[in-house]
């Protein structure tokens, strides 16, 4: 087992589009890319496995769980409004409005396959 990374697999429709989304907008770097089938990208301790339709990871997914779901990557940010402005300027559309609660504020954006990414600004302590 590799303790260097926490790995998450996202099944995506278009691996190159997903690579572009995560590297351009969220600072991931490509560890490995196998054409349209698969890519391995990292950001700090997070290893994101991007599995296209031809990958073994996607083929192992049951049909009733094939669509992007309610799970999401959670990124803590220091200034949510600045991140929203940066991503809006880059042409990304958000899936929700900002939601505020006792723990902080959050907003969701989707990758090209519909997998959710949460941007979260903790409340001042």
UniProtKB/TrEMBL annotation:
<dbReference type="InterPro" id="IPR029068">
    <property type="entry name" value="Glyas_Bleomycin-R_OHBP_Dase"/>
</dbReference>
<protein>
    <submittedName>
        <fullName>VOC family protein</fullName>
    </submittedName>
</protein>
<dbReference type="InterPro" id="IPR051785">
    <property type="entry name" value="MMCE/EMCE_epimerase"/>
</dbReference>
<dbReference type="InterPro" id="IPR037523">
    <property type="entry name" value="VOC_core"/>
</dbReference>
<dbReference type="InterPro" id="IPR004360">
    <property type="entry name" value="Glyas_Fos-R_dOase_dom"/>
</dbReference>
<feature type="domain" description="VOC">
    <location>
        <begin position="4"/>
        <end position="122"/>
    </location>
</feature>
<keyword id="KW-0479">Metal-binding</keyword>
<dbReference type="Pfam" id="PF00903">
    <property type="entry name" value="Glyoxalase"/>
</dbReference>
């Amino acid at each position: 087992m590799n303790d260097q990374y926490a790995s998450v697999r996202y099944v995506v429709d278009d691996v190159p589009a997903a690579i572009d989304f995560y590297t351009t907008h969220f600072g991931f770097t490509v560890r490995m890319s196998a054409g349209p089938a698969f890519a391995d990208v990292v950001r700090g301790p997070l290893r994101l496995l991007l599995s296209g339709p031809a990958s073994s990871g996607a083929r192992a997914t049951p049909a009733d769980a094939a669509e992007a779901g309610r799970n999401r990557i959670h990124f803590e940010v220091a200034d949510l409004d600045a991140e929203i402005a940066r991503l809006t300027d880059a042409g990304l559309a958000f899936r929700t409005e900002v939601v505020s609660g006792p723990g902080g504020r959050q907003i969701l954006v989707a990758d090209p396959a519909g997998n959710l990414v949460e941007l979260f600004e903790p409340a001042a302590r």
